[in-house]
Amino acid sequence: MEHVGFIGLGIMGSRMAATLRRAGFEVTVWNRTRATAEAWAQEHGGAVAKTPAQLAERCDAIISIVVDGPQVERVLLGEDGVVEDARDGLLCIDMSTIAPHEARSLSAQLSEHGVSFIDAPVTGSAPKAADGTLTIMAGGAPADIARARPLLEPMSETIVHVGPVGHGQTVKVLSNALAAANLTALAQALLVGKRAGVDVERMIEVLPRSAGGSRMADLKAAPMLAHDFTPLFKLEHMLKDVRLALETANEAGAPFLAAANAGELFNAGVGRGLGEQDIAAVVDVLESLADVRLNDD
């Protein structure tokens, strides 16, 4: 596991690949935009592959973190994909957030080519990706998780083997939907406070120390107040994850009403052109409903 292939150099992937280089691994990257891959390699000392298939020729394991299931399928199974030149025993570690059934399907198809697969989505923002303190929820066979662990450890502070292939994605989409529900509740509470005449800056000081405190309150209350929507996790990506969680809930026959409500608000955010902004931008939707802005004096 000395030579690692890395597919996807977005906000998270570029930072995660850099932690592997700092840990001493040889890293060859591929990105849909080649200029991004070349810039990363120049900065971090890695190499660039022409195709995902070329990665499979060179590497002992391949990590992918792209936008959605169809993109994962393309880079692993499509034209010039990993399976075209995969050696027996190659390990693919998908760290994207995709549907659980997509992870199971990918695993089954790759196994026909002698390739092992685990789903290992992450939680944590770009700063945690940069300093290697992500939380990873991994699904797969115990032997494959053990093989992957030396690669996952430099990128994370916590690795939990949650079950077979697909369970990593199940836990991830439910976790993200819970975060989305928490975020929209936070925005509503802040706006009620604003309408009630409360000093919202003081309210933000109280929330982390209260029963209503949360990770979302810690991370997103201040950006909401400042209307700083610099993307650390894009709103449109959260909407995708909430929809996957609702699909999972539907398949399981269990309600997830908080996620459904959050999904409506994130969907409205995309409709307002906020998809490329940070998830904190969902407050803009709620401000329009409340007819008040948090950053108005």
What does this structure look like?
The protein is an alpha/beta fold. The chain folds into 2 domains: 3-165, NAD(P)-binding Rossmann-like Domain (Rossmann fold); 170-290, N-(1-d-carboxylethyl)-l-norvaline Dehydrogenase, domain 2 (Orthogonal Bundle), CATH 1.10.1040. Helix content is 53%, strand content 13%. A 6-stranded parallel beta sheet has the order 3-2-1-4-5-6, with helices on both faces. Helix 4 packs parallel to helix 5, helix 8 (167-195) crosses helix 11 (235-252) and helix 12 (257-271) packs across helix 13 (282-290). The chain starts with a strand and ends in a 7-residue tail after the last helix. The model has no long low-confidence stretch (mean pLDDT 96).
What's this, in brief?
Helices cover 53% and strands 13% of the residues.
Keyphrases for this structure?
2 domains; Rossmann fold; 297 residues; elongated; N-(1-d-carboxylethyl)-l-norvaline Dehydrogenase, domain 2; 13 helices; 3-stranded mixed beta sheet; 6-stranded parallel beta sheet; alpha/beta
